[in-house]
Design brief:
The chain folds into two domains: 273 residues, Zn peptidases (Aminopeptidase); 126 residues, Alpha-Beta Plaits, CATH 3.30.70.360. The chain is 37% helix and 23% strand. It has eleven helices and 18 strands. The longest helix has 25 residues.
Amino acid sequence: MNGRMMSLVVATFWLLNQEAEAANAVRGEAEPIPAISKAVQVQIAPAVELLEEVVNINSGTMNHAGVRKVGEVFDRELTAIGFKTAWHSMESVNRAGHLFAEYGHGGVCQLLIGHLDTVFEKDSPFQRYSRDGNIAVGPGVNDMKGGDVVIVSALKVLKEIGALQQGRYIVALIGDEEKSGQPKSVSRHHLIEAAKECDVALGFEYAAGLNAATIARRGSSGWMLEVDGVRAHSSRIFSDQVGSGAIFEAARILSTFHNQLSGERYLTFNPGVIIGGTEIDYDPAQNAGRVFGKTNVVAQTLRVQGGLRTLSRSQELAARARMREITSQDNLPQTTARISFTDGYPPMAPTAGNLALLEMLSEASEDLGYGAVTAYDPGLRGAADVSFVAEYVDAIDGIGAEGQGAHALNEQIDLSTLPLLIERAALLMYRIARQDAWPKNSH
């Protein structure tokens, strides 16, 4: 082969290699960080418009029509980029329902979790979106319609750069996160089933900070303390026949809870409602009741409704066992007491798999120039829907909108952080999708 022919062959191979690299970048097979960053900039204006549209639709949990309407907006957005959507009605548990959307087939499956409802019902004075510079204020603007917008926008970015088809995604936009329907075996059935199909879960609840994410959340369950004593004239209190009465016994139990259990890390228990006297009528579902009592009558009956938060299932079971023991032992004279527990949001324990996801997020953030991301203190966060899936998949949460005042009448979002959040989410999802497999036992 002469020199000219050799040069032509080399040039041909170089050209083919360049074309292959370009094609790979379009298909998402190479790290397309510049392409992601460019696509994000295109998505910012539509993202802000979408946020305003959904915030201006009241979707308090019990406003079923409003929740469905917000679901229809996100259905429109997800359908436009090729997702197959389904609405799962939850009227059987007196809730609106959930929007689920799926895209792709094989490979690592990512479950992207958001919610459609807010704490602001139709009678709330806080109803409309407003904006002053980069600060937008409105009901649910960061908890969590802003997070929902981050999900949709990141998927649009992956679609734009030709990388969406390389992964599998299930989007779960829950319609009753703020006030979940009972039983949760019904209201969270579709979310749990989706988790069983997936490998990882990304929760887009509002961020605790741009450089913090959640790899553990405490679970939230309920307890009811019921105490009974002997009704009699107060002049006979502490006698052998009358004893101490229901209120003193409840005070003993609650004080012992506080003295013996309050020092354990990540364990908290709160007696939120107490009602006691001669006669009571208490409705736990409404957290309200009626009471009658007199200062010259020993209290006969009392109820305390409370909440329990723990970081792990084992911590929850141990706390319940200790509370039962305190309730049933050493009762004051002529009193009886019993305590019962109701399951709520399960705990999301910190795991090696969750930490691996955090490290991937942190690397993506650093590669984009936004700095490292660390684990947020689980003692400072409440329960969330990601907790229901943590038993089945590795998970991370708190990567949604950045703002302040969640659940307050001045809830706000910092719109200047949207490009960062969308870009970082898109790169994280891109990298997860390109894993050969996800170790199913890592969590």
